[in-house]
Amino acid sequence: MTQKTIAGTTVDLNDEGYMVDASQWNREIALELAKEEGMELTDKHFEVLEYLRKAHANDETLTIRKVGKSGITDIKGLYKLFPGGPLKFSSKIAGIPKPASCV
Amino acid sequence: MKKILILGGGTAGTMMANKLFKALDRQEWEITLVDQHRTHYYQPGFLFIPFGIYNKSDVIKPKGDFFPSGVRILYQEIDRVEGEASKVYLKDGTVLAYDFLIIATGTQTRPDETPGMLGKEWRKSIFDFYTIEGAVALQQFFKTWEGGRLVMCISELPFKCPVAPIEFVCLAEAYFTEKGIRDKVDITFVTPLPGAFTKPIATKMLSQLLKDKNIKVVPEFYLESIDNEKKILRSYDEVEIPFDALTIVPVNMGSEMIERSGLGDDMNYVETDKETLQSRQFENIFVLGDASNIPTSKAGSVAHFAAEILFENLMNAIENRPLTARFDGHANCYIETGYGKGALIDFNYDTEPLPGTFPLPGIGPFGLLRNTKINHYGKMIFRWIYWHILLRGKEMPIEAHMTMAGKKNEIV
């Protein structure tokens, strides 16, 4: 685990760069984390991020399919918003743990 | 009479019926089990059917052979559970009241969830092997197939028996080698996971195994649709994979009955406490096996280990004690790798599959994360154990909780 100052706030990150404590998150941090992934966030992105944070707080297991059924966007839309790894990148930017695949 | 009702007479429900019938006072308790189907399938055997190692007759027996004679069995379709009223409604209008309910309705393959899967190529060049019909159709197809691109694709997570697709490509590799046409068959393993398996140490071992067998892995492929005309798999981010023969794990979902009852998540799996195995909504409902949303493998071994915990907690609940038994997510899976060899993994919620020996530390006879002949025998003998010991709820010499004894926490 490492500490890093992002957008003026010190946050704890794990080895893969995911935030360890979701409560340290704010919008500025999200913008900064997105920039590291080469992305600029729109309101639509933030709608997804808020949805993910809420689901995470409720201890719900997140899947791409589930986000696709959220009413915010469909799966194709989610891939367009977060290309290359819709749930991995969105979770990272939302300050929640990397989604665990249950096998 | 107090009433225990079990929904589902598959591996989980049958084990539970046997355990409870032995333990409970027959003057005091009435046990009822509901299932709409009369045939019990030995599902781990489906994997062997496409290669002619097993046939249909090797994997089926009547469900009725495994239920204790004092348990009331209703072969009916379930309409819904009404948790507030502690009642279950069957499709034929029967209403069953219960003191305790055990949901063991499993998971189902849903090829209808993916556009194009049930198109004109279904069971002509597109096959599932998670149903008896699919496995038998694939056996027929392979008998005369002369080669081409064989693609194994996993549609969605979670799915039943997460190692089966890896076993399938390994067995296919051996099958076509023995047929003398391996050089004409190009095998590709397509998965939404970042690698061959989720956990790092097992992924490393299994990736090497697939590489040695010249099986390609396409990771992070999330299937959107299948084009029957062009014979192409298409992902949500518009990657295309052509195939000549496709074997597929369709989307898995829990029973629609769960949805009608308002007990499930978006995949119709029952919201379940992962440690006590009690429903998150109703204190007198417990969930066993694939029907639950607990974060571990959907597999018979998990249902077997969880059954012991559920049994303890149900006894606690009956006698108004706190639910002290805690499930650790223990799973134990043989992995057939072809040529009479197999690997074995043993893990739980917190501990990933590690190398070592099983079940006796330092002795075995089975090797964890190793490719050995004895592991293969373990898998073949398991069918006998399944029918004669496991389903009948008899004791097995393996603890419900995973143990670290015999495991080495290092990279192989």
What this model shows, in words?
The complex is a heterodimer of chains A (103) and B (412). Helices cover 44% and strands 10% of the residues of chain A. Chain A is mainly alpha-helical. The relative contact order of chain A is 0.18. Chain B folds into three domains: 169 residues, FAD/NAD(P)-binding domain (3-Layer(bba) Sandwich), CATH 3.50.50; 141 residues, 3-Layer(bba) Sandwich (FAD/NAD(P)-binding domain); 60 residues, no CATH class. In chain B, helix 1 runs parallel beside helix 6. At the A-B interface, helix 3 and helix 4 of A face loops of B.
| Known CATH architecture of the largest domain in chain B | 3-Layer(bba) Sandwich
How many domains make up the 3D coordinates of chain A? 1
Instruction: Output mean pLDDT of chain A.
Output: 90
Work out the strand percent of chain A: 5-15%
Shape by Cα distribution of chain B: globular
Uncertain ranges of chain A: none
Strand order across the largest sheet of chain B: 5-2-1-9-20
Number of domains of chain B: 3
Q: What series of H and E elements makes up the topology of chain A?
A: EEHHHHH
The CATH superfamily of the largest domain in chain B is known as: FAD/NAD(P)-binding domain
* Structural category of chain B: alpha/beta
CATH topology of the largest domain in chain B: FAD/NAD(P)-binding domain
List the quaternary state of the chains: heterodimer
The largest β sheet of chain A comes out as: 2 strands, antiparallel
SS elements, strand count of chain A: 2
Rg of chain A, nearest Å: 13 Å
Architecture blueprint of SSEs:
The complex is a heterodimer of chains A (103) and B (412).
Chain A: E1 2-6, E2 9-13, H1 27-36, H2 43-57, H3 64-68, H4 75-81, H5 86-93
Antiparallel strand pairs in A: 1-2
Chain B: E1 2-7, H1 11-23, E2 29-34, E3 39-41, E4 60-62, E5 72-74, E6 78-82, E7 87-90, E8 95-97, E9 100-103, E10 107-109, E11 126-127, H2 132-144, E12 148-154, H3 164-178, E13 185-190, H4 200-212, E14 216-218, E15 223-227, E16 232-235, E17 240-242, E18 245-249, E19 252-254, H5 256-261, E20 285-287, H6 300-318, E21 331-338, E22 341-347, E23 356-360, E24 364-368, H7 373-390
Parallel strand pairs in B: 1-2, 1-9, 2-5, 9-20, 11-18, 12-13, 12-18, 13-14
Antiparallel strand pairs in B: 3-4, 6-7, 7-8, 10-19, 15-16, 16-17, 21-22, 23-24
Helix pairs in contact in B: 1-6
